[in-house]
């Protein structure tokens, strides 16, 4: 369908909005080209994810596609806890568990 | 194939958030969001011909554009959260906000009646932003809560509302 083009328009709108919001001066040094590339690749990956999701909703039951694609926070949680060595206080770990449980409850068809 | 695509979508979203979060700690999160949207725009323009089918109606474009406004604000909020908080907390809080919001909107505006456990999940999600942020480990208070208020995925899913059945409708029509 036309989802790709619609999202392209959506991204232009987002771009304009983000551009207007970055006016306040940033104290940090200018980013290196590698950092810009990494930031852009984040957007490319998200766009690829959205296209996959929309294709999945066309070939699969929407409920199944929604449920499976809602697994995405698992990746940052695992990377954060293992590779980045993020430590959670007991209270925060409890909050994380309850947050994931709430996600499962909402998504279950 | 559809299930694999959905899983691939989850994996790509997850990696995208990790990359964006890591970069947000080294450069301004607003710039990360801006460059990310530029990259996403290029990718969607390249992918658009693959979609085929008829051109979008003006209503499609309106919804898509509206969704883009939400996405822009949400990505800035998400990267702000990850630039100073733990991504293992920020992303799930953002995700649960994005999942619960369509359910509440569908129930209040469209008049749908979600299942009991769906409401249980929404209720469970409400205080989570307060619990997760907690104290300590250098996490600034309040940031994850702000991310949850505007989740990028919630507005992204609005892109598909004009043509396909909405996820929340299907979800709410369960037994």
Give an overview of the whole structure:
The complex is a heterodimer of chains A (109) and B (175). Chain A is mainly α and 109 residues long. Helices cover 74% and strands 0% of the residues of chain A. In chain A, helix 2 (33-59) runs antiparallel to helix 3 (62-69). The longest helix of chain A is centred in the middle third of the chain and has 27 residues, at 33-59. Chain A is flat and about 40 Å long. Chain A starts with a helix and ends with a helix. The relative contact order of chain A is 0.07. The mean pLDDT of chain A is 77. Chain B is mostly helical and 175 residues long. Chain B is built from nine helices and no strands. In chain B, helix 1 (2-24) crosses helix 3 (58-84), helix 3 (58-84) runs antiparallel to helix 7 and helix 4 packs across helix 5 (116-125). The longest helix of chain B has 27 residues, at 58-84. Chain B is globular and about 40 Å long. Mean pLDDT of chain B is 70; it is low at 133-152 and 154-175. At the A-B interface, helix 1, helix 2, helix 3, helix 4 and helix 5 of A face helix 1, helix 2, helix 3, helix 4 and helix 5 of B.
Short structural description:
By secondary structure, chain A is mostly helical. Chain A has helices at residues 3-21, 33-59, 62-69, 74-82, 90-107.
């Amino acid at each position: 369908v036309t989802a790709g083009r619609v999202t392209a328009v959506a991204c232009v709108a987002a771009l304009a909005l983000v551009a207007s919001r970055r006016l306040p001066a940033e104290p940090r040094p200018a980013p290196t080209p590698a950092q810009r590339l990494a930031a852009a690749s984040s957007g490319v990956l998200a766009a690829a994810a959205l296209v996959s999701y929309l294709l999945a909703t066309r070939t699969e039951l929407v409920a199944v596609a929604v449920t499976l694609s809602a697994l995405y926070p698992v990746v940052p949680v695992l990377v954060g806890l293992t590779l980045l060595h993020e430590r959670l206080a007991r209270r925060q770990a409890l909050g994380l568990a309850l947050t994931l449980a709430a996600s499962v409850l909402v998504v279950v068809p | 194939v559809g299930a694999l695509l959905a899983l691939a979508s989850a994996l790509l979203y997850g990696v995208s958030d990790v990359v964006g979060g890591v970069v947000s700690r080294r450069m301004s999160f607003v710039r990360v969001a801006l460059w990310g949207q530029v990259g996403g725009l290029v990718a969607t323009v390249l992918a658009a011909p693959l979609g085929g089918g008829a051109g979008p109606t003006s209503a499609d474009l309106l919804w898509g554009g509206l969704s883009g406004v939400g996405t822009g604000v949400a990505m800035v909020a998400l990267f702000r959260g990850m630039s100073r908080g733990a991504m293992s907390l920020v992303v799930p809080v953002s995700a649960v906000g994005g999942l619960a919001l369509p359910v509440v909107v569908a129930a209040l505006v469209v008049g749908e009646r979600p299942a009991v456990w769906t409401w249980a999940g929404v209720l469970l999600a409400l205080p989570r932003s307060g619990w997760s942020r907690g104290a300590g480990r250098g996490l600034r208070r309040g940031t994850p809560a702000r991310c949850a208020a505007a989740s990028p995925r919630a507005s992204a899913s609005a892109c598909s509302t004009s043509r396909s059945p909405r996820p929340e409708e299907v979800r709410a029509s369960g037994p």
